[in-house]
């Protein structure tokens, strides 16, 4: 039985807690939160222990789930690792690149399990493509949300766009060659809307737009590769594949088109998207990595790479054009 301690039981932390309570072979030993209102509500509803200090919680668990503000990630993660505890931490990995570099070194040397909460990796619309060969050469992303003061302690790049940065870095098997970016602060002190172009050495180009001041929500990614288009709707949990590849699957709609080089068959497929809970899946994956001694699904290196690109984008936005 894995003993889990939770750091932070605010809005997102309560979702984590609810999911941990449904996962087999896990015991939630308690939580730590400096907010008296949050703490009282959790104690009354869940009847679990509150620890007065992080150190006291660490003494009573095998692993911690850190759902604290980004500014506290480094200190909490570092302390947990030094105490020999496995770590799950919400994205972004840390607040600064110096902290990220230090934490990366500490986590790798610790030989402990460390997972970063890039939840879209577990979105069923994305998971539905796991058996499909993805080799995009052009990527278009829109991630829009309505304004919420919660989360504005970091820019829209680290708040929203980092989800898509992580996915793209997994899909494109090439290093970043150039980044251009524009961003505007509208309702907070950091960029609330941004448009970014990432170019890779293999020729792939990704255009990303993220906004947290939109009138509607949208979380879509479109992939274009040789002979195929793949659409992923992370919000509606839908996936579509339009390809020129022949198929014998009777459930796939096909039609012929005339091109300058003759007739081609186009197939439209909608892969089955499982009805799964992405947060429960990512926390279960963390548990399994610990109990089965396997690599975590989203490693500290993955979290570092996403942060590195995010900070390169921020540097472009904050550098005035000459």
Secondary structure topology:
Layout: E1 2-7, H1 11-20, E2 26-32, H2 36-46, H3 54-58, E3 63-66, H4 73-82, E4 86-90, H5 97-110, E5 114-117, H6 124-127, E6 138-144, H7 156-171, E7 176-184, E8 193-200, E9 205-211, E10 218-225, E11 228-233, E12 238-243, E13 253-259, E14 262-269, H8 278-292, H9 300-318
Parallel strand pairs: 1-2, 1-3, 3-4, 4-5, 6-9
Antiparallel strand pairs: 6-10, 7-8, 8-9, 10-11, 11-12, 12-14, 13-14
Helix pairs in contact: 1-8, 4-5, 5-9, 7-9
Written description of the protein model:
- With 322 residues, the protein is α/β, with parallel strands linked by helices.
- The protein folds into two domains: 2-118 and 278-298, 3-Layer(aba) Sandwich (Rossmann fold); 122-274 and 309-318, Dihydrodipicolinate Reductase, domain 2, CATH 3.30.360.
- 32% of the residues lie in helices and 29% in strands.
- It contains nine helices and 14 strands.
- The protein has helices at 11-20, 36-46, 54-58, 73-82, 97-110, 124-127, 156-171, 278-292, 300-318; strands at 2-7, 26-32, 63-66, 86-90, 114-117, 138-144, 176-184, 193-200, 205-211, 218-225, 228-233, 238-243, 253-259, 262-269.
- The protein has a nine-stranded mixed sheet with strand order 7-8-9-6-10-11-12-14-13. The chain has a five-stranded parallel sheet with strand order 2-1-3-4-5, with helices on both faces.
- A hairpin with a 4-residue loop joins strand 11 (228-233) and strand 12.
- Helix 7 (156-171) packs across helix 9.
- The protein is globular.
- The chain starts with a strand and ends with a helix.
- The mean pLDDT is 92.
